[in-house]
Design a protein that fits this description.
By secondary structure, the chain is α/β, with parallel strands linked by helices. Helices cover 34% and strands 16% of the residues. It has helices at 9-27, 46-57, 85-92, 114-127, 164-170, 190-194, 209-216, 249-256, 259-264, 271-279; strands spanning 2-6, 35-39, 66-70, 72-74, 104-105, 133-137, 158-161, 184-187, 198-203, 235-240. The strands form two sheets. It has a seven-stranded parallel beta sheet with strand order 1-10-9-6-2-3-5. The protein is globular. The relative contact order is 0.17. The model is unreliable at 270-281 (pLDDT under 50).
C-alpha cells in the first residue's frame, strides 16, 4: 500500500488526474485493447474530473479507447434527477470528454429486476476483461462505494440498504431533508473492486482522518471496508494534509519521505520506474 500525501485538496486532484492520464497512456489502448476504468461520484473526485477534462481538451489524453464502470447508483431516483449518479457523471465528466457513450457503464437503479441488473453489471466487467484501475472515495465511516460498515469483504455488486450515517451525510444533497434521500442503492462489492489490477482511493478533509487511520494503521476490519485494500497487491491512497490528522507522526514522516518516489509515478518519462515501484508494494 502506498500513501501519497499532498499539500492541498487541489493537488490531490492534480496528482490523481496525472496518474490516471499516465496509466492510460502507458497502457497504449486501441480498438483491440481498451483501458477499463472504475469510477466514483461525490465531491472528492470532482477536482480530478475537472483536471482530466482539461487534459483531454488540451490533447494530452484521449478516452476514445477507454471503458468505464461506475461504483454505484441510488435506487428509484430518476436518471435526470440532479442527485442521480447518472446525472452527476454525464454533467461533470462524460459529456466533456471524447469517450464513446456505449463504453460508459452505470448501474440502473430503476431496473425492473435490481438483482438481475447487478448480476449483468458483474458480467459486463468480466466481458470487458476486468478493471485495470478502480478509483474510489470513502465516507467518514470508511465505507467504499455503498459498502457500509459490516459489509462482506468478498461482496459482489448488489442492492444495499443505506446506513443512517450515510443518509444523514447525503441529506445535504437533498435540501437537508433526510426523508428525500433514497434508502437503497446499487453498489459494486468490495470483492468487485479487489478484483481490479490496481485500486486508487482519494481521501480529503479532517472529517475523514479517522477513516484513513483505520485504513492504514489498524488491521483489516469489515466495519471499515476501506481497510480491505491493505490486502490488495496494488493500492494507492491519495490524501491531503487534513486527512492525516489521526495518523502517527512516524507514519506521516515515512510516507512524506517517499515524496520523490511518488512524484516519479506521474512523470512522463517514468514508465519503467512505475512498473518497478508498483511491483515492490
Amino acid at each position: 500500500m502506498r500513501l501519497v500525501i499532498c499539500d492541498t485538496v487541489d493537488y490531490v486532484a492534480e496528482w490523481s488526474a496525472k496518474y490516471v492520464m499516465k496509466r492510460i497512456k502507458d497502457f497504449q489502448p486501441n480498438e483491440n485493447k481498451y483501458f477499463v476504468l472504475g469510477l466514483p461520484t461525490g465531491s472528492t473526485p470532482l477536482g480530478m474530473y475537472k483536471k482530466l477534462i482539461e487534459y483531454n481538451k488540451l490533447g494530452k489524453i484521449s478516452f476514445k479507447y477507454v471503458k468505464t464502470f461506475n461504483m454505484d447508483e441510488y435506487v428509484d431516483l430518476p436518471r435526470d434527477h440532479p442527485e442521480s449518479y447518472h446525472y452527476f457523471m454525464y454533467n461533470n465528466f462524460f459529456k466533456h470528454i471524447d469517450i464513446d457513450p456505449k463504453n460508459v457503464h452505470l448501474l440502473d437503479g430503476n431496473a425492473p429486476d435490481l438483482e438481475a441488473e447487478c448480476n449483468e453489471f458483474e458480467k459486463k466487467i468480466t466481458e470487458a476483461g476486468g478493471i485495470e484501475l478502480f478509483i474510489g472515495g470513502i465516507g467518514p465511516d470508511g465505507h467504499i462505494a455503498f459498502n457500509e460498515p459490516g459489509s462482506s469483504l468478498v461482496s459482489r455488486t448488489r442492492v444495499k440498504t443505506l446506513a443512517q450515517d450515510t443518509l444523514e451525510a447525503n441529506a445535504r444533497f437533498f435540501g437537508n431533508d433526510i426523508n428525500k434521500v433514497p434508502k437503497q442503492a446499487l453498489t459494486v462489492g468490495v470483492g468487485t473492486v479487489m478484483d481490479s489490477v490496481e485500486v486508487m482511493i482519494l481521501i480529503t478533509g479532517s472529517h475523514k482522518a479517522f477513516a484513513l487511520y483505520k485504513a492504514i494503521e489498524e488491521g483489516v476490519n469489515h466495519m471499515w471496508t476501506v481497510s480491505a485494500f491493505q490486502q490488495h497487491a496494488r493500492t494507492l491512497i491519495i490524501c491531503d494534509e487534513d486527512a492525516t490528522l489521526e495518523l502517527r507522526v512516524k507514519t506521516v514522516k515515512y510516507f512524506k519521505a517517499l515524496s520523490v518516489v511518488h512524484q516519479k509515478l506521474i512523470e512522463e518519462d517514468g514508465t519503467a520506474f512505475l512498473r518497478r515501484s508498483l511491483s515492490d508494494c
